[in-house]
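Appendix B, Record 12. Input sequence as logged:
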Amino acid sequence: MAAEQHVFIIGSKGIPAKYGGFETFVEKLTENRKSKELIYHVACMEENSQKSDIDAAEFEHNDAHCFNVKVPNIGPARAIYYDVKALEMAIKIAKNKGYERPVFYVLACRIGPFIGRLKKKIHALGGLLYVNPDGHEWLRKKWSLPVRKYWKFSEKQMVKHADLLVCDSLNIQSYIEKDYQAFHPKTTYIAYGTDLTPSQLKEHDQQVRDWYQAKGIKEKNYYLVVGRFVPENNYEAMLRGFMQSRSKKDFVLITNVETNKFYEQLKAQTGFDRDPRVKFVGTVYDQELLKYIREQAFAYFHGHEVGGTNPSLLEALGSTHLNLLLDVGFNREVAEEGALYWPKDNLQEVIQEAEELSPEDINQLADKAKQRVTTSFTWDYIVDRYESLLLRGQ
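Logged structural output:
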């Protein structure tokens, strides 16, 4: 019988997943495990587990061993504290159990200043440190300058100390190899995944009709965006471009804007509240309903420019017929020929182009998008890639 390979995953809020890209990734990786030789250990933030009514210090989910980490409420440094504490706990578990060549997979580059010391402990066990560098966190506008400098320094340290960097975007991989070539980083590319199963909901279902009626919108008569309401997702460019267009359709934004200063700032700058076509409809947590809303959009806007393979982009390519993406390398890398692309200052022209497309043209783009997702981004394919990597234990 082959030896067990123990893999500790640090840096997600935990499973069962409630939201978030890394959380969904860990959920899918464990849920779709194929090799019995792989044993997953997942660090979970105590408050995330409590949302699923789990209070135990350790528990099992998807046949993975999960352990809760209690994180004090210390403001923005919480995430750093959590990752350090979780990795220390993981190292202790591996040491006490005597696991051979355990892999410690850290998601994101938050704990660079501490990683040198922790890596020594990992190597003392005969273990390996894998890191997912995520996207360009240091470019996010939500952070102050000192915080951005911390992110950049932290990233540098994580790259320097990682035994392997698992990049979920080819653009991120080439950035790491180029900007940090002095460290000779060892990298590999494995994308994020998505689910291609269509929504189980139908047009006449009460839940569907109630939602559309309450929001005052009609199927196939709206542009859609789903995502965090933050500046680097280019909401301003999308709102301005749409408002300058002559479209008779609505622009539906599924996002959380309660007590959001950015929302008030954008309202003052663009006057979107005076355009009846612009509809902020809050969040939709029901995944079947959200999938149906995606499927029934005329087109999807994607304005992300910071980060790797974005989960909401993959979901849109898998569900929505027509996708209008910000013209940046990350988005072209993922969608290739399956979308239309817009420059930041000229969405309105691409909207006009989209509305002049024939149904055949739109179906052709939809087929290309779904083909792209099917060949490269299904969870089945992504899990296969991860398992062969982890079992190799480079």
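The mean pLDDT is 93.
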